[in-house]
Amino acid sequence: MKNCIVAQSGGPTSVINSSVIGIFKENLKQKYFDNVYCGLHGIEGILNNYIINLTEIGYENIKHFKYTPSSGLGSCRYKLEEFNNCNEDYLKLFQIFNELNIEAFFYIGGNDSMDTVDKLSSYAKEINSHIKFIGIPKTIDNDLYATDHTPGFGSAAKLIATTVLETYLDSSVYLNNGIFILETMGRNTGWLGASAALAQLDGQPVADFIYLPEQVFNMDKFLEDVRRKYEEQNKVYIVVSEGIKNEKGEFIVESEAMPHDEFGHKQLGGIGDLLKEVIINSGITSRVKALELGVMQRCAMHCASLTDIEEAFNAGAHALELFNKGYTGVMVAFKRISNNPYKCIMEDVDVKLVANEIKYFPKEWINEAGNHVDLRALDYLRPLIEGSPQLEYENGLPVYKKLI
Amino acid sequence: MKNCIVAQSGGPTSVINSSVIGIFKENLKQKYFDNVYCGLHGIEGILNNYIINLTEIGYENIKHFKYTPSSGLGSCRYKLEEFNNCNEDYLKLFQIFNELNIEAFFYIGGNDSMDTVDKLSSYAKEINSHIKFIGIPKTIDNDLYATDHTPGFGSAAKLIATTVLETYLDSSVYLNNGIFILETMGRNTGWLGASAALAQLDGQPVADFIYLPEQVFNMDKFLEDVRRKYEEQNKVYIVVSEGIKNEKGEFIVESEAMPHDEFGHKQLGGIGDLLKEVIINSGITSRVKALELGVMQRCAMHCASLTDIEEAFNAGAHALELFNKGYTGVMVAFKRISNNPYKCIMEDVDVKLVANEIKYFPKEWINEAGNHVDLRALDYLRPLIEGSPQLEYENGLPVYKKLI
């Protein structure tokens, strides 16, 4: 009896479940494992024995899971201690793995999760366990090192670009328009913010300005940008990454945050709301709207990229191949061969290269004025949002499958 | 030479342009008019002679317009004075209409716009003008009197229900989850908020609570609802209409607004952010997220209802029929014949019945606890979100056509 176990960790994406089905279906073909188990809520759940058997549930009952957004196996943000400090978690995990005849553990996650894969594979070598630990990349932020991009990013980018296009049309219907600010996620990196540049009409980006964390943000220069553009065209469309920073490297949303009021209430809202307030106070115009896309960026399967879904699926399938070749302590990675036609191959990278590292948006792809991105960014981004899935609908809504 | 003119007014919807194409294509068949003109930015634009000729532009160049969200002819919020007080606008409009040999004016809008149709048709009778004035309903709020529903609502409802489903999945992945609040538009009415009940998994609505303006909102009872549910299931999904009111009829977002801070900054955010703050301050949990869908509700064509698009189109076509029958001062209205199978017919109603009136969500469709809606609401809502358009995509994004 040879089994494997799959789990998810960190923030959800629209396509993370597609990697689970990729593992499951590839195994139906290759028959490496008798059972594909799933750990619910990442290693935190596995430590509590929250485990289901996907093979027993059967493909017919989970076929919609490939197109179900968000971490369908549940997630966690559980950081494993170094194994020489606190062995208890390791002992327990390996005991559970051994009881279930686990030969391979597939962990779908970001840089924190790859740290877990690194630690568990190192520990396995230390104790001469044959269990293989393989990482499958996932994050909407696209900030993983050693891979061209990450599953989950393309769908988030597609939602952002689609929303920019649609809200731009919404924000320019009057004779006297105002200023529109769209806030994207992305933490320290500008990949998601940059994807707003994909939204174009007549071959031109509809966003007038895009501000990314990789470029020092200067409030005076920002107001100058906005004032000039507003005088010029009577409307301004601004995209801002949540993580933009000042010259000291501090987040603008923290350094420029409005003071607490007398009751100690914290001011609500993120960078979009803050810039809205700054623009209104500057006197440019009081007609300012801010929209924060929030978690929609990581779960809008109805607007997902088919390329992204299929790549997430293939990453799962490829992880099985890496197991079959005897690899451990590696992550599936994407290597881009060409943009046009788009071609990516999959390879393996040492998880140590990925764990706890951050891949930033290339500064050279930001324009000289520091308020937009150039054609290289568009060439990189465009293939990742191609294609739309044919979701099954019932009563006007997509059919999703819940496992937890 | 017989011509007509079409214009749009008020807030955008995803499908408002479909009504323009409905007029245009029906006229290609019926040939009532030699030219279909469009007034840009409603009557405010027409008064400034912002007029284009759709017939000259030709169908091939505007075929994507049917699937382009937001008021593609531009909009305005221009209130016509009573014609006995200030005739200048009337004189100018009728002069422009006469110069263009206009026989019919089609105005696509909500209750304010129907007030304009009412005034212009009354004035035409007064001066013995033969020009016909016909209204075509449009509003995401679904608050127009004398029609079963309004084009634009179904698509907004579909976006809301889809987003509730997807963000529910996103908000329940951890072992310890928090509270999620989704804020919908709808001003004084609960139609949009109620549509969140369409989002179901395993036959049950995923939203635990839905609060609508038609039901007096009591903050203590709200906190009781939330506390009980959070203790029960470790997560709570709340939907709230922007316009909920207290027993005095005051908007909660105004009556309970947090005080300005020492610098006079206004607290940002709407009712969702306010309830988030109230929950955190109550000590139930600090893990609370609020999402405001904002203008996406009125422009997300990528998630539109096909039923809605086609009904908007048909309403345009039907307006031509009303002209042909010699009607003026009327609005196209929908009358529902049956829910299952869904069948609606179109009729005409006197715009006086619609102008400046508000149709509320039926209070009897709200549950006894005042925090959800019942099956009658679902039966009413479900057919309106059926079907998805097959949009044309280019570079991974929908192809939209701009006319202004």
From TrEMBL, chains A, B:
One of its GO terms (biological process) is fructose 6-phosphate metabolic process. The keyword Metal-binding applies. Pathway: Carbohydrate degradation; glycolysis; D-glyceraldehyde 3-phosphate and glycerone phosphate from D-glucose: step 3/4. It catalyses: beta-D-fructose 6-phosphate + diphosphate = beta-D-fructose 1,6-bisphosphate + phosphate + H(+). Its EC number is 2.7.1.90. Its cofactor is Mg(2+). Keywords: Cytoplasm, Glycolysis, Kinase, Magnesium, Metal-binding, Transferase. Non-allosteric. The record marks 138 as: Important for catalytic activity. Residues 4-321 form the Phosphofructokinase domain. Diphosphate binds at residue 11. The lineage of its organism: Bacteria, Bacillati, Bacillota, Tissierellia, Tissierellales. Coiled coil: none annotated. This is Pyrophosphate--fructose 6-phosphate 1-phosphotransferase. Mg(2+) binds at residue 111. The record marks 112 as: Important for catalytic activity and substrate specificity. The active site is at residue 141. It is found in: Cytoplasm. Catalyzes the phosphorylation of D-fructose 6-phosphate, the first committing step of glycolysis. Uses inorganic phosphate (PPi) as phosphoryl donor instead of ATP like common ATP-dependent phosphofructokinases (ATP-PFKs), which renders the reaction reversible, and can thus function both in glycolysis and gluconeogenesis. Consistently, PPi-PFK can replace the enzymes of both the forward (ATP-PFK) and reverse (fructose-bisphosphatase (FBPase)) reactions. Homodimer. Belongs to the phosphofructokinase type A (PFKA) family. PPi-dependent PFK group II subfamily. Clade 'B2' sub-subfamily. One of its GO terms (molecular function) is diphosphate-fructose-6-phosphate 1-phosphotransferase activity. Pfam families: PFK. GO terms for cellular component: cytoplasm. Substrate binds at residues 139-141, 185-187, 242.
